[in-house]
Amino acid sequence: MELNIALLAGDGIGPEVIAQAVKVCDAVADKYNHKIHWRPALTGAAAIDAVGDPYPEETHAICASSDAVLFGAIGHPRFDNDPSAKVRPEQGLLKMRQKLGLFANVRPTFTFPSLIDRSPLKRERIEGTDLVFLRELTGGIYFGKRGREDDGETAFDTCTYTRKEVQRLAKKGFEMAMKRSKKLCCVDKANVLESSRLWRETVQAMEKEYPEVQVSYEFVDAVAMRLVQWPNSYDVLITENLFGDILTDEASVISGSMGLMPSASLGESIGLYEPIHGSYPQAAGKDIANPLATVLSAAMMFDDFGLFQEAEAIRDVVNRSLSEGVVTEDLADKGKSYKTSEVGNWLAKHL
Amino acid sequence: MELNIALLAGDGIGPEVIAQAVKVCDAVADKYNHKIHWRPALTGAAAIDAVGDPYPEETHAICASSDAVLFGAIGHPRFDNDPSAKVRPEQGLLKMRQKLGLFANVRPTFTFPSLIDRSPLKRERIEGTDLVFLRELTGGIYFGKRGREDDGETAFDTCTYTRKEVQRLAKKGFEMAMKRSKKLCCVDKANVLESSRLWRETVQAMEKEYPEVQVSYEFVDAVAMRLVQWPNSYDVLITENLFGDILTDEASVISGSMGLMPSASLGESIGLYEPIHGSYPQAAGKDIANPLATVLSAAMMFDDFGLFQEAEAIRDVVNRSLSEGVVTEDLADKGKSYKTSEVGNWLAKHL
Ligand SMILES: CC(C)[C@H](C(=O)O)[C@@H](O)C(=O)O
Ligand SMILES: CC(C)[C@H](C(=O)O)[C@@H](O)C(=O)O
User: Fold this and answer.
1) Is there a contact between B249 and A162 if contact means CB atoms under 8 Å apart?
2) What region holds the Isopropylmalate dehydrogenase-like domain (chains A, B) (predicted)?
3) Chain A within 8 Å of B120 (Cβ-Cβ)?
4) DSSP characters for B263-301?
């Protein structure tokens, strides 16, 4: 297969972890006779510095004409103190999601047996946890009308959803449930919000198309509790944009492997793959960042190309690196630690 | 002191736990020479059954003319399957909050040394946890304009906040911080929402009135993570209605004492005190429910009357009941367990 992949390294440790994912993907391509054309483009603070826009037109053109986007991380501390600044790296993220139509954010949370004791939760609570959130990513209160009234004394934001938006997200949820344990949980606040009632009635109406899927409906506050109490009781969860923002972050820390969690953002055609961690500026340039979340995001990309063997090969070599202790300092505890680039080299070599 | 207290027992185990709080309050009143006039009134499913309204006018009249409201729990399983039903117990809750002007929901999360191992989190993560959320309770997306458009195909909800609403909540937060460790965290999503930007700028402007308070600003998704990772790093947190709904529930399970957590909802004059647990219909009528959360809510009520000795006396006797094993079956593990009413009697007697 010939693949064009846009490469958005971004800020901080982004370029370093992306470089390792590239090595691993190239090794996979070599082994399975594919050819990857990497197409680097600017984003985040790096793009603001270069052209004053965190998601420039040229970058969008490259992404939109590629088969997938591999994304590092964005964000720079100089933007931290003023969340309302006109030009911010995160705006690039939102613009990109919208312009590429990436309406479904897929965020798995699972445990690595060798890392389970890093979780803040007790072992018996998380053993067997293997859940995946589908967060709606281009609608809701993130993209509704917002502004000020009364000379700035009143502020408002609007959460809007159409039935179609709910359907296309829910469809992905049902399909994912069919491939997994056939359990789907719709997370909403239907006892208060009209948009949540639309979510619930839309999903309810779709149940008959997937008679094998067992669907449950839970309120967002209850899920925020149960995720901490019994994360392993969930499988596929679907939810709207803002609830998904909060709950996927909460879910990511329970496994204790937050730094290793991959993600995908999917649209009708193109997909974007990125680690869930941020740009971690303190570690930038030190060759110490853990590249595994980015490498595992690349595995999700191969899955979505239908290249399942290739994806499995990546996951296998990642597991081997963990069990053989070829890890960056964040996972090394008292043992020997490896540089970011060394882990990347090892993975590429042992694939 | 002569106190008029509205007594809203509500549904399920509500009446049983309220009955114990009444015994304890009466014992405190006896000891410290107060007189409490209890003023029972209907709410929740019980009120829907009786008069078709979960928060009837008569109930409101009783609450509004009392010094405080002691509240049990509301909710009945027959409402569970249809979150959009026209008349639901929760609507009583929302109506009550609004009509009584209960704009600040105070929810502490703390650990009991003897119960710490019940937490889903590891001991070292929660030891010393003693935080309190102030959730705005009468504004935001709960009370904004909502509805449908396009023949029901589009649904919307509006989150609105005025500077005054933020100020009065934040004021309570700063005052509480002054009485505690002088640390305040404002939780928002100011990188996306205009209402959050109003929150942040309003709190920032208030900082100079409380120069001793160290204020931090965190995004709601980050707080959802850190609450699980290091709950003991927080002290006072202030936030808007919906974020507060999600985060206070999340926080309540980390201590492992969820069934014991009290709460207060405060307005300009009257306060309402209630356990954070629900109506637990499965246990209703069995005399097995744990009354301690309701009893501790009553302690918060005495605190707010300025009757600190009385409040301490209640907390003391609760701690003694725990260390002497006078507990309901949920806390008894392998040991002897007591009935709801027996625990209430013991507390009243040993005060
Ligand atoms: C940076 C921010 C706008 C973004 C979001 O809220 O979607 C982030 O938290 C995420 O989850 O990707
Ligand atoms: C029942 C529901 C409307 C209510 C809320 O969301 O406020 C509840 O979850 C709470 O937190 O008191």
Assistant:
1) no
2) 4-347
3) yes
4) EEEE-SS-EEEEESS---GGGTTSS-S--HHHHHHHHHH
Question: At B256, phi and psi to the nearest 5?
Answer: 80, 0
> Which residue's alpha carbon is at the smallest distance from atom 3 of ligand 1?
A90
**Residue B130 catalytic?**
no
Helix (H, G, I), strand (E, B) or coil at A192: coil
* Chain A contact for B80 (CB, 8 A cutoff): no
Please list the residues that pair with B132 across neighbouring strands.
Answer: B108, B236
In short, whether B221's Cβ falls inside 6 Å of ligand 1 is: yes
Pick the residue whose CA is nearest to atom 7 on ligand 2. Answer: B245
Interval between CA A264 and ligand 1 midpoint (Å) = 14
Catalytic residue status for B150: no
CATH of domain B109-257: 3.40.718.10
Q: Is A309 exposed, middle or buried (0-12, 13-18, 19+ CB in 10 A)?
A: exposed
Identity of the residue numbered A290: N
Which pLDDT band, with edges at 50, 70 and 90, does B77 fall under?
Answer: confident
A111-255: in CATH 3.40.718.10: yes
pLDDT in tens, B285-298: 999 999 999 999 99
Q: What is the CATH number of domain B1-102+267-351?
A: 3.40.718.10
Share of chain B above pLDDT 70, in %: 99
pLDDT tens digits along B162-183: 999 999 999 999 999 999 999 9
Q: Count chain A–chain B contacts defined by CB atoms under 8 A.
A: 175
Task: Check CB contact of A246 with chain B, cutoff 8 Å.
Answer: yes
**SS3 assignment, position A110:** strand
**Contact by Cβ (8 Å): A200, A239:** no
Judged by a CB distance cut-off of 8 A, whether residue B193 touches chain A is: yes
> Where exactly does CATH 3.40.718.10 map onto chain A?
1-102+267-351, 111-255
Instruction: Give B196 to chain A, closest Cα distance, Å.
Output: 8
pLDDT for A85 equals 75
Assign 3-state DSSP to chain A and report helix, strand, coil percentages, each to 5: 50, 20, 30
Pairing of strands B183-188, B214-219: parallel
Q: Which residues of chain A have pLDDT under 50?
A: none
Is pTM beyond 0.70? Reply is yes
Task: Find residues 158-177 of chain A whose CB sits inside 8 Å of chain B.
Answer: 158-164
> A181-203: buried (b, 16+ CB within 10 Å) or exposed (e) per residue?
eebbbbbbbbbbbbbbbbbbbbb
Q: List, by residue range, all CATH 3.40.718.10 domains of chain B.
A: 1-102+267-351, 109-257
Ligand 1 pocket residue status of B225, Cβ below 6 Å: no
The shares of helix, strand and coil residues in chain B, as percent rounded to the nearest 5, are 50, 20, 30
Chain B residues near residue A142 by CB distance under 8 angstroms? 192
Q: pLDDT tens, B93-146? A: 999 999 999 999 999 999 998 899 999 999 999 999 999 999 999 999 999 999
Cβ-contact A132, A235 below 8 angstroms: yes
Which ligand gives the minimal distance to the CA of B142? 2
Confidence of residue B348 (pLDDT cuts 50, 70, 90): very high
**Active-site entry in A157, A221, A316, A333:** A221
Is B142 one of the annotated active-site residues of the chain?
A: yes
Does A107 show up as a binding residue in the annotation? Answer: yes
